[in-house]
From TrEMBL:
Residues 5-122 form the Gfo/Idh/MocA-like oxidoreductase N-terminal domain. PANTHER family: BILIVERDIN REDUCTASE A (PTHR43377). It holds the Pfam family GFO_IDH_MocA. GO terms for molecular function: nucleotide binding. InterPro entries: Gfo/Idh/MocA-like_OxRdtase_N, Gfo/Idh/MocA_Oxidoreductases, GFO_IDH_MocA-like_dom, NAD(P)-bd_dom_sf. The lineage of its organism: Bacteria, Bacillati, Bacillota, Bacilli, Bacillales. Residues 132-252 form the GFO/IDH/MocA-like oxidoreductase domain. This is Gfo/Idh/MocA family oxidoreductase.
Amino acid sequence: MAKHKVLVVGCGSMSNTWLDYVEQRSDAEVVGLVDVYEETAIAMAERRGLDVPTFQDIEDALSATDANLVFDITIPDSHKQVVMTALHAGCHVFGEKPMGTSMADAADMVRVARASGKRYAVMQNRRYLRQIRAVRAAVNYGAIGRLGALYADFFIGAHFGGFRDAMDNPLILDMAIHTFDQARFISGAKPVSVYCQEFNPPGSWYQGNAAAICIFEMSDGTVFCYRGAWCTEGFPTSWESNWRITGSEGTILWDGRNDPTCEVALLDREPTGLHRETRTVEIPVAWSGREGHWGCLDEMFDALNEGRPAETECTDNIYSVAMVFGAIESARIGQKVYLRNLV
């Protein structure tokens, strides 16, 4: 098996997770570090004991190394330039979400990835959790009958500082994409339309809108309702959101922290008519894969080695991106937006 020679672009704190991952793979090695502030790349190399060249420019790095795989761990505004440059140079790309800061940019990236014949997979680490895998399996085998609706609440006060505080749509663009992608993963459906109300609550420390309510119609007829705020102090949900998933025969609850629970309806015929009760049904949590970033990276590398698209290949992830930019557009114009016009 050919060795994956990795060029890491973006040497902020998040890159440590990606570098930790590469260190434990026998079929991958880091061949260079790139950061717009080269001193940051130099400091990262020294801190991690990496004897590799550092660069300020990705084109210089690609010319000077034999990289065949690029990790794009830059800020969202840089994703398009990094990904396009890497694909044009004949490299595969694994990158952080979101794909881009506009739908047009994301569509361009998918087009170039297809034309290049190279893989571009996107980090959607919320798919790689034991509990959400169990929820999806339960929905798939009909534990609650025909799926009807998904409801997700996300309320956290996140004091990150930095670029997020200055973004126009910090919640939807940088955070809600996780939950939107989870809804797609659980339902197995694609988004059809969205209506969104976006706002910035009192006390918010964000420049842009840090709260939103979204209603999505999905291709299987289900409805996905999202409520979220990234500037809520008190009673936080989990980062994975608080879920209620309803079907024709029952409901699944998952708080994002603990194992999911399920109640289904029992229909008893009595002389006086129909009597409904419910019973609790156990949802097996048996997925043995690794979780979080490492689980997603396992899938990316497995897909690359097997010559197949990853679960989070850009050609699929574009639908989660469409949910993001469709919601932003809906909030801007105050109307429902049909997502087929975006993808």
